[in-house]
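Lecture 7 notes. Example A: sequence first, then its C-alpha cells.
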Amino acid sequence: MQEELWEDNNPAITYSSGEWARTYNSKYRGSTFMRTTQLGDSMSVKFRGSSIKFVGAEGTDHGTFRVDLDGEETVLDGYCCGQNGEIPRVTLFEAHGLGTEEHVLNVTNLAAGPWGSTLEVDLFIISPHSVGRKPIPVFGVFLVGAVILLLGVFLTRRCRARKLTAAYQMLPVRDDAPARY
C-alpha cells in the first residue's frame, strides 16, 4: 500500500480562524505551506490510516506546539538552528499502529520560542491499513470440509465399483482369431 500525501490545502484539513496564511516557497512540498504566528491558532485533520506524519518546519522563529491525536496530547518544540536558521520539510510528529477507525489530529500553536511563535504546516503523510483477507467463518470451514469429505466418499465408491465391474467382465473369445503375442 502506498502512502498518501495530503498537502496543506487538502479539504480534510481545517484551520481555525486566526492568522493562518498560505505562503509560497519552493523548499516546501508543492511550493506552498500554511503559516501562523498567532498563539492559540490550530488546525485539525480527520483521517483513516495505520500511521500519520505531520511535516512542517523548524526554525529560530518557531515555538512550541501541542499535538492531540485522538485525545492523547504531546507538546513539541519547533525551535532550532540558532539565529536566522530554518529547516523546511521536517517530520515534526508521527504515530504508528493506529486502528481502523477514523482518527482526529489537532495541532495548536502553544507558546513562543526565543525569537518568535511561528508554526508551519507543509503536509501529512498517511499510510493506509493493509488489506488482508477476511477470516473465513467457522461455519464456512465446516461446510467446505463436509463437501470435500462427501466428494471423497463418492469418488472412492465410484472407483471401487468400476474396479469390481472390470475385474469380472467376460470378454468374448473367438477360436478362429489368430493369436497375437
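Example B, a different protein, same format:
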Amino acid sequence: MSEPVLRLAAVERRFRTEAGTLDVLRGADLSIFAGEIVALVAPSGTGKSTLLHLAGLLERPDAGEVFVQGRAAGTLDDGGRTAIRRSTIGFVYQAHHLLPEFTALENIALPQMAAGVARKPAEARGRELLAAFGLEARADHRPGRLSGGEQQRVAIARALANRPALLLADEPTGNLDVATSDRVFTELLEMVRGQGLAALIATHNPALAARMDRTVTLRDGHVIPA
C-alpha cells in the first residue's frame, strides 16, 4: 500500500486551564490516503478542531508526530510547517474568511502568489476554478456582492488553488441553508474526487458524512471508526 498523505501517529495534545491540565488527544492515530474522503463526526468539545489544527500544522503535538506525505512535519519549525501548508494543504472553514476588499478572482490568486506563482498563471488558475463552480461571471465581484453559497464556493476554490494533496475542512457548509449546503457539498466532493485528493472533513451532518468513504469519531482522546 502507498504512503498515506496524512498520518497522525500517537498524537497527544493537552491544554493548561485554571482547573488543571485538559487532555484533548491521548494518542490519536489516523491515516488518510490519496483519493480518500474521511468524515470526522464527533460531539462539540471532543477535539475535532484541535485534531484538524494538528493535521494542518497550525499547532504542534505535545507528543507523537504528524506525517504529511511521509515527512515528519508536526514538530518542524514555523518556516518548515508554513512551507508544507502552502504547497500541500488546503483549508476550508465554516466561515468563508474571504478578504472583503478583493474580488473573487483575487481571493483565489493571492494564495498562489504567496507561494511564488506569477500573477497571470495564478489568475488563470483562479478563472479555471471559478468556471468549475459556475462562478466565472462573478470573478470581478467582491465577497459582499456574492451570496453565502457563492462565497463558500470561492473559499473552496481558494483552498484548491495551489493543487494541495490534502484538504482539511471544518463544517464547510455549516453556515448555509439545507438546499445550498447540499449543492455546495456535492460540488466539493466532485472536485476532491476529481483531483484525487486526501480529505478530512468535519461535519455534524450524518447525511453528509454518509456520502464520504468512511467516518471516524473521537472518543476519550482517540480516533476510532464511527
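Note on Example B: The chain has one domain: 6-225. The two ends are 23 Å apart (CA to CA).
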